[in-house]
C-alpha cells in the first residue's frame, strides 16, 4: 500500500486534467476539438447544446494525461447550463473568429463570466489560457490581425495560436503547447512556473500600441492636443520612440506602431511653423 502511494507521486504517472472551451457561438470551438481528436472537419454548423463532454488521452514527456474536455456552447441562451462547469479547470481554450471583430471584443466578457462563476475565492492565476485566432483560412474576411490578437493574449500572460480547424493549421502545435504548459503547472504544485507567468513587455507598451492603433489622427497618435508646438510634438515623439523602438520593445505590433509614430511626427512637423 505504502509502495503504491509512493509510486503514484512519481513523475511519469498518469495525470487527470480538466479543460474547457470558451468563446462566442460559431467561432469554431467544437471544430477545433474535433480536428485534434478525430482528425476531421465538418463544414455544417451544428451548434453545441449546453455542453459537450469528451475524454481523451495524450502524452506529455513521459506522462500519460487523461484530458476531460468540456466543450461549451457559446450562445448566451446556454449560460445557465455552462456556468456550472467553470470550476476545477486547469486549462481554457479561448477562441475567436479572425473574421468577426465582435468575437474578439467578446474575449474580455468571457473572462469576466468565468471570474464571476468562480466567485471571490476563485483563482485564475494558475489556469493556462490558450487563445485561438481561428478560421485563418478565410483570409478575405480577416479583420483582426495577428499582432492585435497576440498583443491581447500575451499582455495577459496567455498563449496565442493562429488556427484553422478546416485545414488543421496550428491545431496540433496549439494543443501540444497547451498540454505541456498545464503539466508544467501540475508538476510545480499547481502554481505557474514564474518564468512563464509574465509577458516580456510592459503594460505601458501594450497600452501605447493599442492607443496608436485606435487613434483618429496624427495628433491623437502622438497624444498631443491639436495645434501643439514643434517642441511638444518632438517631446511626445521621443517618449513613444523610446518606449516602442523595435530594439527595445518585443510587444506584438510594436514595429508598426513605431513606424506610425515616425510618420505622424513627420506629417505634423510639415505643417507647424
Ligand atoms: P457553438 O457550439 O454554437 O458555441 O459554436 P462553436 O464555436 O463550437 O462553432 P463550431 O465549431 O460548431 O463551428 C461553427 C462553424 O464554423 C461551422 O460551420 C464550422 O464548419 C465553421 N468553422 C469552424 N472552424 C473553422 C475554420 O477554421 N475555418 C472555416 N472556414 N470554418 C470553420
Ligand atoms: Mg460548439
TrEMBL record:
Record's GO cellular component terms: late endosome; lysosome; nucleus; organelle membrane; phagocytic vesicle
InterPro entries: DnaJ_domain, J_dom_sf, P-loop_NTPase, Small_GTP-bd, Small_GTPase
An example Gene Ontology molecular-function term: GTPase activity
Keyword ATP-binding among UniProt keywords: no
Domain J intervals: 217-273
Chief localization: nucleus
Keyword annotations: GTP-binding, Nucleotide-binding, Nucleus
PROSITE patterns: DNAJ_2, RAB, RAS
Coiled-coil segments: none
The family this protein is said to belong to: Belongs to the small GTPase superfamily. Rab family.
Subunit structure: Interacts directly with MAPK1 (wild-type and kinase-deficient forms). Interacts directly (in GTP-bound form) with MAP2K1 (wild-type and kinase-deficient forms).
Name this protein carries in UniProt: DnaJ homolog subfamily C member 27
Organism: Rhinopithecus bieti (Black snub-nosed monkey)
Amino acid at each position: 500500500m505504502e509502495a503504491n502511494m509512493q509510486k503514484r507521486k512519481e513523475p511519469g504517472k498518469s495525470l487527470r486534467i480538466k479543460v474547457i472551451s470558451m468563446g462566442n457561438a460559431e467561432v469554431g470551438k467544437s471544430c477545433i476539438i474535433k480536428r485534434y481528436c478525430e482528425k476531421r472537419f465538418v463544414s455544417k454548423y451544428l451548434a453545441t447544446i449546453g455542453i459537450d463532454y469528451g475524454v481523451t488521452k495524450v502524452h506529455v514527456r513521459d506522462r500519460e494525461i487523461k484530458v476531460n474536455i468540456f466543450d461549451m456552447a457559446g450562445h448566451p441562451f446556454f449560460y445557465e447550463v455552462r456556468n456550472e462547469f467553470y470550476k476545477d479547470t486547469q486549462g481554457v481554450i479561448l477562441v475567436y473568429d479572425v473574421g468577426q471583430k465582435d468575437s474578439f471584443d467578446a474575449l474580455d466578457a468571457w473572462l469576466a463570466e468565468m471570474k464571476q462563476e468562480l466567485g471571490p475565492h476563485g483563482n485564475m492565476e494558475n489556469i493556462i489560457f490558450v487563445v485561438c485566432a481561428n478560421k485563418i483560412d478565410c483570409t478575405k474576411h480577416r479583420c483582426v490581425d495577428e499582432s492585435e490578437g497576440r498583443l491581447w493574449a500575451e499582455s495577459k500572460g496567455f498563449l496565442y495560436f493562429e488556427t484553422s480547424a478546416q485545414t488543421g493549421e496550428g491545431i496540433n502545435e496549439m494543443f501540444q503547447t497547451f498540454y505541456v504548459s498545464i503539466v508544467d503547472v501540475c508538476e510545480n504544485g499547481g502554481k505557474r512556473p514564474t518564468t512563464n507567468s509574465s509577458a516580456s513587455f510592459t503594460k505601458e507598451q501594450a497600452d501605447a500600441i493599442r492607443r496608436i492603433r485606435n487613434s483618429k489622427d496624427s495628433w491623437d497618435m502622438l497624444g498631443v492636443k491639436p495645434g501643439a508646438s514643434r517642441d511638444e510634438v518632438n517631446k511626445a515623439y521621443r517618449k513613444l520612440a523610446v518606449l516602442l523602438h523595435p530594439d527595445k520593445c518585443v510587444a506584438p505590433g510594436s514595429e508598426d506602431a513605431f513606424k506610425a509614430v515616425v510618420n505622424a511626427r513627420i506629417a505634423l512637423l510639415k505643417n507647424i511653423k
